[in-house]
C-alpha cells in the first residue's frame, strides 16, 4: 500500500497551474484569469472587429462611453423594450424591435446588412431583454452585435440624445 505524498501532489498541482497560465498568456484566445475582462471587448477597434474569424460569435457588452462612440458613428441602435416603453422615450434614432414580439418586427431587420454593427439595449441593468435580443440577432447571422447593458436609464441620465 502506498501512502500519499502531499508534497508531490502540491508540486504537480502548482506545476499544472503554471503551465496553464503560461499557455493562456501566449495564446491568441486568452481566457480571463480573474473574471470577465470587459475592457478587452470594448476597445476603440469595435467597429473594425472581424468577428467572422472568431470561433465563438457572441454579442459583446459595451459601456456608456462605447455606446456613445457607436452612436456618433451612426450605428443602428435597437430598443428591445415593448412599444409603449419605446414611445415614452428612447435613444434618438433607435428602432424598436420588442424581444417578446420579435417575429412581428422582423421586417425592420430586412434593410440591415448582417455585417453592419448593431447595438441592443433595454431599460437598464435590471432588464435582460437587450441580452436576449442580442443573442437572437447573433443566431440570425448578424456578426457585430453589441449589448448596451446600461440601457435607456443610463443613456437618459447622461443627457445624451433622446426622443420622447
Overall mean pLDDT stands at: 83
What is the CATH C-level name?
Answer: Alpha Beta
- What is the CATH topology descriptor? Oxidized Rhodanese, domain 1
In N-to-C order, the SSE pattern is HEHEHEEHEHEHE
CATH architectural grouping: 3-Layer(aba) Sandwich
List the helices and strands and how they pair.
Blueprint: H1 6-26, E1 60-62, H2 64-72, E2 76-79, H3 83-88, E3 90-91, E4 95-96, H4 102-105, E5 118-121, H5 129-139, E6 145-148, H6 151-157, E7 162-163
Structure description:
This protein is of the alpha/beta class and 164 residues long. It has one domain (38-163): 3-Layer(aba) Sandwich (Oxidized Rhodanese, domain 1), CATH 3.40.250.10. The protein is 35% helix and 13% strand. The protein contains six helices and seven strands; from the N terminus they run H-E-H-E-H-E-E-H-E-H-E-H-E. It has helices at residues 6-26, 64-72, 83-88, 102-105, 129-139, 151-157; strands spanning 60-62, 76-79, 90-91, 95-96, 118-121, 145-148, 162-163. The strands form two sheets. Strands 1-6-5-2-4 form a five-stranded parallel β-sheet. The chain is elongated.
Essential attributes:
164 residues, two-stranded antiparallel ribbon, Oxidized Rhodanese, domain 1, 13% strand, elongated, alpha/beta, 7 strands, 6 helices, five-stranded parallel sheet
